From TrEMBL:
Domain Lipid/polyisoprenoid-binding YceI-like: 40-221
InterPro entries linked to this entry: Lipid/polyisoprenoid-bd_YceI, TTHA0802/YceI-like_sf
Pfam families in UniProt: YceI
Entry keywords, A to Z: Signal
Signal peptide positions on this chain: 1-25
SMART domains: YceI (SM00867)
Protein name, entry field: YceI family protein
């Protein structure tokens, strides 16, 4: 495949502070993974990234960053992606210092907050996982895409913490003779995966937007 908060997986990748955007990924119950067919392409963990972006209510105080360390593979048959899966190491979740505008706060503090039991609890759930359940052509008359040049609709099971749901979103996929790149940008509701600060109805959780914008760039090479 060729080709923001926290993660993705989905992402990936995947989200803890909420995002301000449109084009919510369609979210459904977990589905069967796509049958494995065609040649396998190994995902390049060094160049594959998941970006995230989150805000407080009304789009205030945007926070954003990146998650690296993706591992997995894609399957390609007759010039098209047919399936695949990858995991993302949430221990690599990083906050961009440019998103921290308060002089008394540091990016490292927010990273620790997001990785703690307050959000992702990476000590117990160190990875996010995405398993493709379907790939279809993208029709711009029926769906909107945050990413220009979308070619396909990807559906897959996204696992965050101990919850798995199926999401569908537009993506731009380019299949070459020996490589695949895929890019996507979409929004998920973090609360659908039970990711809440303190409790779901607490004032601290309410002030954080539930929407999280996820962007990913996947690169894979033929095995």
């Amino acid at each position: 495949m060729k080709q923001t908060v926290p993660a993705l997986v989905m992402l990936l990748t995947m989200a803890a502070c909420g995002g301000a955007s449109t084009d919510q990924a369609k979210t459904e119950e977990k589905k069967e993974a796509a049958a494995t067919s065609g040649a396998a392409y190994a995902i390049d963990s060094a160049t594959t990234t998941v970006e995230w972006r989150a805000t407080h209510k009304g789009g205030f105080a945007p926070r954003f960053g990146v998650i690296k360390g993706a591992e997995g593979s894609l399957n390609v048959e007759n010039g098209a992606v047919t399936g695949g899966s990858f995991t993302v190491n949430l221990n690599t979740l990083a906050v961009d210092p440019a998103s921290i505008t308060e002089p008394e706060k540091k990016a490292a503090d927010l990273e620790g907050h997001l990785k703690s039991g307050d959000f992702f609890d990476v000590a117990k759930h160190p990875t996010a996982k995405f398993v493709i359940t379907g790939v279809a052509p993208y029709d711009s008359t029926k769906q909107k895409s945050l990413l220009p040049g979308a070619t396909n609709l990807i559906s897959g099971n996204l696992t965050l913490k101990d919850s798995t749901l199926n999401i569908t979103f537009p993506a731009q996929i380019v299949v070459g003779e020996n490589d695949v790149t895929a890019n996507a940008k979409f929004v998920i509701d973090r609360s659908s995966w039970g990711i809440n600060y303190k409790t779901e109805g607490s004032p601290e959780n309410w002030v954080i937007s539930k929407d999280v914008e996820i962007g990913f760039s996947v690169k894979a090479a033929k095995k």
